[in-house]
What does this fold into?
Amino acid sequence: MHDIRFIRETPEAFDRALSRRGLSPLSSQILALDADRRARILAAETAQADQNKASKDVGAAKARGDDAEFERLRALVAEKKAEIARMQAEAAALDDQLRDLLMGIPNLPLDEVPDGADENANVEIRRWGTPRQMDFAPREHFDIPAMAGAMDFATAAKLSGSRFVVLKGAAIRLHRALAQFMLDTHISEHGLQEVWTPVLVKPEAMYGTNQLPKFAEDSYQTTNGWWLIPTSEVTLTNIAAGEILEETALPIRMTAHTQCFRSEAGSAGKDTTGMLRQHQFEKVEMVTLCTPETALAEHDRMTACAEAILQKLGLPYRTIVLCTGDMGFGAQKTHDLEVWLPGQKRYREISSVSTCGQFQARRMNGRYRPATGKPDFIATLNGSGLAVGRCLIAVLENGQQADGSVVLPPVLSSYMGGATHITADGRLGA
RNA sequence: GGAGAGGUGGCGGAGUGGUCGAUCGCGCCGGUCUCGAAAACCGGAGUGCCUGCAAGGGUACCGUGGGUUCGAAUCCCACCCUCUCCGCCA
It folds into this structure.
């Protein structure tokens, strides 16, 4: 959510930033509403002050036994009561209106973010690794012989429908190994703190990390009102909701491995084969809570944490900066990591690392106490480190051999019972 | 699920209709004392919003939402959460 003071003080800067996102100016509408709101608050509070004063006088009159004055003041207050209630309701309504309006406006891009309308304007900032030369036609993950029977979409469709998978044998062993490997690396080498969280949350949490109110159709809600998290960014970030953290406790760098649930409402027909885009998937997420001044440095640090996973797995990737038109709702700046998928012959997103500045913290009222001065909103960052299913795909496609087997990244062998490859008929081999 | 107890400021814990935003203790910050520290003593300190150049003033907040009352932390209703015991259960 945006700081109304920032909009009041620099409406042009606000509108300019919106236009970089392809949005029309909103400051005049916001400021008109804000002015109206403040006028009503002033009126309502003044009326309330009058009532409070009269109530005190009532008490004083009674105490000294002045019955006439007592009755007179009592009647006066009773008379004003409905009017005051109405004024307060009006003020509260305008307050809510302004909040709702602000809640629906995306974050503003940082100056350094490249302008652009869509993904074509994203800027590659570095590339790591070289796609392996294959002297055969590389297959997509679901066609690799080593995965035959281990990646079962038909059974999943019977159980749940499209965009689900049943994993068996080497596929799920490798999937589990990847998640463990990511967590262990983040904990022991990157200094992140592992956290386990619920995957069912209250609506407030979804508002806090801006899934609500605009993107309700992208997530699932239970019959009693809980939401299934689309990412553990929701739970990890909302840990700070309503809190005032000590500055000395920052930064707080967390990681969690959870199930994620997405309706994929807007992606009908996109990535329908294989397990690239599922309703239910696993992700190792990273979230950092820090001071606003350190957010950009933390952003680079988090990006490096995600890149380290790909490097250790030996997977070629490129890092891009999303342009203003391609960034998510809550982001000020986003790095995407795209891993090379030989089966598709292209780079595909495997991680997205964003700094949200104080945008989410303002929504969830997450603050810290600076060494001097008043509490201020923290900065929040989130990033995948990594999407486990997509990483499984990348390992399989990049490690595939002409004979249908898959050579595994050496760093995984200790997580795979010493296996170094998956044979063409789906067994682990050393 | 049943029965009971309880949710007050960083923590503990008073307060059961009126100068209570709230006694007190611990912790915290500043000062005195000291070579320095501890102890002791003195002083300070919640959060949001509105208003004001500022000093300040106003308003709201005692789990949440309603209600009663001129007036609610205090009374009533509903809900949420925590704890204890019982039942059930991975």
About this structure: Chain A has a mean pLDDT of 93.
